[in-house]
Amino acid sequence: MTSIAKPRIVHRGLSRNRLGLTVRDYEGGMSTLCAGCGHDSVTAAIIQALFELAVPPHRVAKMSGIGCSSKTPAYFLNASHSFNAVHGRMPCIATGAAAANRELYLLGVSGDGDSLSIGLGQFAHAVRRNLDMLYIIENNGVYGLTKGQFSASADIGTAAKRGEVNEQPPIDPVQLTMALGGTFVARSFSGDKDQLVPLIKAGMRHEGFAVIDVLSPCVTFNDHEASTKSYAYTREHSHEVMHTDFVPPMPGITVSYDKGEVVPITMHDGSRLLLRKVSDDYDPHSRGAAIEYIRTQQRKGEIVTGLLFVDESRPDMHGINSTTGMPLNELPFRSLCPGKRRLAALQRRYR
Amino acid sequence: MDPTKTDGTEYFHRVVDCQWACPAHTDVPEYIRLIAQGRFTDAYLLNRQSNVFPGILGRVCDRPCEPACRRTRVEDKPVAICRLKRVASDNREEIGDRLPQAPRHRNGKRIALVGAGCASLAVANDLIPLGYECVIFEALDKPGGLMRTNIPAFRLPASVLDEEIDYIVDMGVDLRLSHPVQSMSALLEEGFDAVFVGTGAPKGKELKLPGRYDTDRIHIGIQWLESIAFGHVTSVGRRVLIIGVGNTAMDCCRSSLRLGAKNVKVMARKPRAFFKASDWELEDAEEERVKIVVNHSPREFLVEDGKLVGMKFDVLEYEFDDRGRITDSRIVDEATLPCDDVVLAIGQENAFPWVERDIGIEFDKWDVPVVDPTTFESTREGVFFGGDAAFGPKNIIWAVEHGHQAAISIHKYCQGTSLTDRLPRGVNLTTAKMGIHEWSYSNDYDPAGRRIMPHVDLKKRFRKLNIEVELGFSAEDAAAEVERCLNCDLQTVFTAGLCIECDACIDICPVDCLTITPNGDQETIEANLKTARLEAEQPLYLSGPLPHTSRVMVKDENLCVHCGLCAERCPTGAWDMQKSTVVIPYALDEAERDEQLCQTAQKAG
After folding, report:
1. ipTM exceeding the 0.90 mark
2. How close A28 gets to chain B, by Cα (Å)?
3. CATH code assigned at A29
4. B205-347 belongs to which homologous superfamily?
5. pLDDT digits (tens, 9 = 90+) for B98-123
6. Which residue in A152, B58, B237, B457 has the most C-beta neighbors within 10 A?
7. What pairing do the DSSP bridges indicate for beta strands A272-277 and A262-266?
């Protein structure tokens, strides 16, 4: 926790994006998380990514539930919409927001407790619906706010700060999302912004449900030697299989790359992802092979990171339901509320 | 790149830009902090330790510290360091019992000091507490040298000068006023153990143009100012031309206004960017409606019937290269300006007609004595030079520093030890962490702008010659200005072995001056910095390899505002804010070392 405010200095080295904003314009309040918390690094990565994408802050809706992770939307994008939902219930609120205004960028920040324990049911259905949002899980394997009990993502064999060892199998949000039909699945590490920032940009631009499982060490309760989610352990065991470079849509600019090593993916808005294979035997387009690979590596004690699976072809919630193309607040009143007679006609169809 | 070496004295001293820029290495951030705490007397005494004349320098210092101030790299204007020094001086309490005193028993050594200016006084200030007998010979009937004769009373009141000179004289200086030294060899024969020459640069430069000696209305700037200071000159004509645009010219033009001139012009040969005068002195003169005329080169004094009527100038045009340097000039016109008086303020130089050239004191081809830049000893053993007398005209604060160094040399010479075996400077570091979220300094960045010094009303200030124009900061101004200091002496100290590379410091830094990057050559590291390196002069602080990834932490010292957030957000204490104190040895410290060595030798013997 910090009581000293970050001074607002517009220094000479500070650049401006397409909107004329500096990275400081994407910041929020002062973090009250523990010094060294991984979540603060994720916050910084979000700020950097949104600054680089030149997203207008007022077009973003920050969604969260309950937990250390869910506090973090207060620490970025002061000028955005925000909703802090009941524990584990963020996905349904986000669904409502997306249904009402499809032009909002929905950015959800949740934790392993909020998404994998109390909110697992909500999370699973948001994946199935392919809700158009970026859903970041700040995963540290413990319940930090309640003093460090194991969470649902704690690995077998990892120890709590006082020594007790976890025996229950973990829920891996990456494998779970793939199994549920997720269309953008990534894993990253709070301490690796080179990887995380492009992933957040890609996730923001993905039309559908984008999940990034970010290993984000709890510096207070889970950064000790017997932990499998400490800074040291994560650095030592994580292995990037697919490095993502994000190329915003810019007419007239061609990007040169070696076709053998790079898999280009064009996004709906024209931006491109250049996936650079770090491991030869990995295929980010095959759901089955990807799950198999992750499992195999997991058994060897390796944490696979990067953009692990992506499918730009599936329709999102609006596409599936053939909803109107405009945000509801922009629809003419007559279309939004067609009147008594049309309602009666509709009701007759169901009688 | 190799990790930055911080164990020597240089590195952390350099980070404190103001203290590094100050010739006497005044501990600026610390005295500003003392002022902020209302400890004006302590602030004054801390100043006095290094610069000896805080009241004087708080008004008329050349302020090399201010252009160096870190604040100029965050916003336009530096902290008003000089003005805050005056705040300490204006608000101090009685300090008599806290000043150094002469010991009851003198050590039997007699030192002759020639000239009672700032250099000699600084030497006496350091040597008298060690038991030396200091005899100052002064040609004029008042001490102070150029501080009294060349700085007008409306900038530096006599009372301030007298008070600070008296602190030194009252320690027991044998001050012999109206006692010009006519011959160095005669002085040397008087049997002094050492001689210090602090006679300044008392000779104003001449401008030998047609008509120069046909009238008595052409004055040499520094002599003219001296005549005004001693009341020999009390009036001047209506129209005055000042030739030259240095600080002396500023004093001459403003003095003219107070002697009754109505139309005063300062004539400059070159464009404004090349003026030698300090910006604030130019501003103050222009506030008084002095007109500064550029690109006019003097050609002739116009004298009719023995009366000065005007001056003829060549009007010049310059060509510049892309870095703004003059590459060529040509005369494009001529101009005649009517005037009643002309004051020449085009520079000053040393003059040693009283030093015989055959007594072992060598002079170089410019007729300036050959002086060692460390020991200040001339080519004759036991004869030392300092201040403007040593290396030509500089300023008060340099003269004071010369005085400190010469005092060390004189002490060593008299004790028969090596002049070059001097105590090195040191830096002490102490953590500023007091507890959770508690630091022993005010680290909130305050975006307030520089306070403006209030001046006496334009109508009132010309009524008398000695009305001090600057009124000094009010309590409110001082309270706001002290908070502008960025506490550069609170060093960010990094311990690589403790870092867990959580990025907390990098994320929180408000000026993006931190980067964790793989090590490489300087070019690679600079390319990886989070914010481009803007000042190559400012060092990079590079750590050793970090434990997890062997990458390195790099800090660009240029940008840091010393807010302490990196240390505040560091979970392992790898970053710490540590108060640095630069330890500067004076003659007293050398004497203490001698005593310790002596005691050790006695014990061993």
Report:
1. no
2. 12
3. 3.40.50.970
4. FAD/NAD(P)-binding domain (3.50.50.60)
5. 999 999 999 999 999 999 999 999 99
6. B58
7. antiparallel
